[in-house]
Design brief:
The chain is α/β, with parallel strands linked by helices and 582 residues long. The chain has 2 domains: 288 residues, Rossmann fold (3-Layer(aba) Sandwich); 213 residues, Nucleotidyltransferase, domain 5 (2-Layer Sandwich), CATH 3.30.420. The protein is built from 14 helices and 25 strands. β10 and β11 form a beta hairpin. α1 crosses α2, α11 packs across α13 and α12 packs across α13.
Length: 582
């Protein structure tokens, strides 16, 4: 609050862990101070419309209701008064407007003195077609003297994180606490790999094998500091800025190591680390949200193809855990590559078969051979026989041929055949309908970045012990998978790229020069086809498969390799499809 009321300070940046009280302690307190002491027009920016309404309803309105000094200045939201709406609060001398970073119209014809950007790392790269939302919002304060700009967020990825970039430009303040033994002031750092490890050599200490107790080791005297001393240390703490001369822009970093909450104890933090250390997705959440530090892409766990080779299992027929089969197809200039996977409860999956069908996609004979392969009847270990229930075909190459093939399959009453086109962006859904009226019935949009992240996360799932049940999402492979398959499956790497449209840095998947990724593309569209089937009643399907296996139990079962069957004659359709190709 001292910085917020200091006229020499124009910008305050807070890079923090989640749930450390920044919204209540900083944003709400400052808004109450503005309305009561130093009124002026104020703009609060949230990442999207839902968060705007949630913030106003859950946090701002109760604060106004319970703050006696604001009674009579900001009307009760229950009153039928135009001066107090959900996203607009008016008071003598000013107002509070809550706007979405995704709505460019919210920033037009607006001049404010106070700007509060909440959770800035959740903002889109561009507000519509008008550019960076923070720059648009800051532009609304340029004609006002003694304006205040506040940026608050937990960080995301280094090189992309907005709050981290703003913090680098600030005075870079850290909260340091005194040792109860020697009185030495130090910044609490989780470990030697921490982003701020260079600021301290004292770390949190705990036993990974039996994580029931954690203590902090003093940087100066090296004595262990018990958790019971934490509240006293934090109460006597102080801020130290690495660049105190940067008075205009003050920055603060807050880790959960200094949070007073019960679930923010050092022992709980240590337990969380042990659970997430070898799980990429959860480890990033731990670093971003509990430590308030950025995730470095070079810290990504690289998946070793040789390790996946050691995970191969001995099975020829479809394992009993698989409840349905899905085929996905990648289209190349001289061939089609098809992957058949089995899916079971909690999206546990099994590699079943992979086939390369050589021939140009321009030739109908190539698609006819794919049709024969798609009509293969597969045999389970239990004796059950089934065909694939869905197929996803990549339409990024030779799109018209893919559309014709999908229509051909659907005319044969194989309705669960989809054409997919991949679209980049980690904020995309796994699948979405095409906006094209001409193609809406057959073409689906696949969020390839989102799906690839899911695949790489699942490739890291392992069993702790050999006799433990397989975890949800576990991916099984049989002996048909050769090293080249695993090389393609793990070929891509995450990197920092620049969006050509907005100029913003963003996270992208990159394929190393000379590497191939057909197996990964097939895996992506297999996941996308599964998403198109949702919701699946897996329990009911498991019961049906178990009943059929029980029915044929005792009958002789021969092990045979699946052979392609001749295509069935085309069935006449009663109703013509409305879709027509030009």
């Amino acid at each position: 609050m001292l910085c917020l009321t200091n006229p020499a300070v124009e910008t305050i940046t807070v890079m923090k862990a989640i749930r450390v009280g920044a919204t209540e302690g900083l944003i709400n307190n400052f808004l109450a101070y503005i309305a009561d002491v130093d009124p002026g027009p104020c703009l609060v920016v949230e990442p999207n419309d839902n968060l705007c309404k949630r913030y106003s309803t859950i946090q701002l309105d109760p604060m106004i209701r319970d703050t006696e000094r604001l009674h009579g200045k900001i009307r009760d939201n229950s009153a039928r008064d135009k001066s107090n709406k959900t996203l607009y609060k008016e008071f003598p001398g000013g107002f509070i407007l809550i706007a979405s970073a995704r709505s460019p119209g919210d920033f037009r014809q607006l001049t404010v003195r106070y700007l509060l950007n909440d959770e800035v790392d959740g903002y889109p790269g561009s507000t519509g077609d008008e550019g960076d939302p923070i720059d648009l919002a800051v532009g609304r304060t340029r004609t006002v003297a003694y304006s205040k700009i506040v940026n608050i967020s937990s960080p995301t990825i280094r090189g992309i994180s907005r709050i981290a970039a703003a913090y680098e430009e600030s005075s870079q303040g850290h909260y340091e606490v005194p040792c109860p033994h020697c009185g030495y002031f130090q910044i609490l750092v989780f470990g030697p790999r921490s982003e701020f490890a260079k600021l301290s050599t004292g770390y949190l200490k705990f036993d990974k094998a039996n994580c029931t107790y954690a203590h902090y080791e003093c940087q100066n005297c090296r004595k262990p500091i018990d958790e019971s001393e934490k509240h006293m240390m934090v109460a006597r703490g102080r801020w130290r800025h690495l660049f105190p001369e940067r008075v205009v822009h003050r920055g603060f970093h807050i880790s959960e190591l200094v949070a007073p909450w019960l679930k923010s104890s050092w022992t709980e933090i240590a337990k969380d680390w042990v659970k997430t250390e070898h799980k990429r997705g959860r480890l990033q959440v731990f670093i971003n949200q509990r430590l308030g530090e950025t995730w470095r892409l070079q810290d990504e766990v690289e998946i070793d193809p040789h390790f996946l080779m050691t995970r191969r299992e001995e099975y020829e027929r479809v394992p009993a855990g698989a409840l349905l089969l899905i085929m996905s197809v990648d289209v190349q200039s001289d061939r089609l590559e098809a992957l058949v996977k089995g899916w079971g409860l909690q999206e546990e999956s099994w590699f079943v078969d992979y086939r390369i069908i050589y021939g140009s996609p321009e030739n109908d004979s190539t698609w006819a051979r794919l049709d024969e392969y798609a009509d293969t009847t597969w045999q389970w270990e239990t004796g059950v026989r089934r065909k694939i229930v869905a197929m996803g075909v990549d339409s990024g190459f030779k799109a018209e041929k893919v559309y014709r093939y999908v229509l051909h399959r659907r005319r044969q009453r194989r309705r669960m055949t989809f054409a997919f086109v991949g679209r980049a962006g980690f904020d995309r859904q796994m699948v979405a309908l095409s906006k094209s009226k001409r193609l809406r019935t057959i073409l689906q949009i696949a969020g390839i970045d989102t799906i690839k992240q899911k695949i790489f996360d699942r490739l890291q799932i392992v069993r702790n012990k050999s006799d433990d049940p397989f975890p949800p999402g576990y991916m099984h492979f049989n002996m048909k998978c050769v090293k080249e398959y695993f090389d393609q499956l793990t070929s891509e790497r995450q990197a920092i790229g620049v969006n050509r449209k907005t100029g913003q840095t963003q996270r992208v998947w990159k394929l190393p020069e000379g590497a191939r990724n057909e197996a990964l593309d097939c895996e992506v569209y297999n996941h996308a086809a599964l998403a198109m089937l949702e919701p699946v009643n897996w329990e009911k399907l498991a019961g049906v498969m178990a009943a059929e296996a029980e029915r044929i139990k005792g009958e002789p079962v021969t092990i045979e390799s699946p052979q392609p069957k001749p295509p069935s004659p085309r069935r006449p359709t009663r109703k013509r499809l409305r879709f027509r190709l030009k």
